[in-house]
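Changelog-linked ticket: zinc ion example.
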Amino acid sequence: MTKSTIIAPSLLAADFSRVAEDIKSVEAAGADWLHMDVMDGHFVDNISFGPTFVKAAFQVATVPLDVHLMVERPDHFFPRFTPFARVITVHVEAKHDVKKTLHAIRAERIMAGLAISPPTPFEAVEPYLDQIDLLLVMTVNPGFGGQSFMPETLDKMRRAAEIRARRGLSFFIEVDGGIYPNTAAQCREAGANAFVAGTALFGAPDRKAMVETLRKSHV
Ligand code: DX5
Ligand code: ZN
């Protein structure tokens, strides 16, 4: 079931007037997961969509949903997504008992992801690395698609990959924000193995070729 490289188109960059068609298109292009950015207008300065939309995507999608909660109280909201998600990712910076939330997500037999924003030091996630299925290293400040990749985040991937190898852990290292073939290649070299791409994928004239390029990208 677990692939060595995951490509997860971010639906935030889809055409919301024809989401079902866009989902079908990226699935046909070879996407492994669909990445869904939930924003509450508090944790980030934007509002995207909530459980009703995620449910609708679930009903048309055949690939698993990778739900990224950019909300202030992920402990309160994550149960609304459990019927539809394969992965639920919460931010270490949000207002909750991180350990308890990760445990509660796993208790639902859902993969627990932990996200870290660019300004947050790596040490913030270190205590939880043995309790997660995925570490989401944000490569832009969360809130909006279409921003430029921040190369200073590469060091977090290297540190996470080093700990993953040293402690025999197997969590995914996912990257999100400004991911294109060139930045994906840098992230892969730093240890990332799950790639979220919004603008790059939905904006590509040939989405299948873009999925393949992202999957194979090397420095
Ligand atoms: C940003 C979101 C991303 C976003 C990425 O807050 O978490 O998933 O959709 O978009 P691109 O790939 O356009 O940077
Ligand atoms: Zn995201």
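Closing comment: Example verified and attached. The two ends are 27 Å apart (CA to CA). Residues 154-166 form the longest helix (13 residues).
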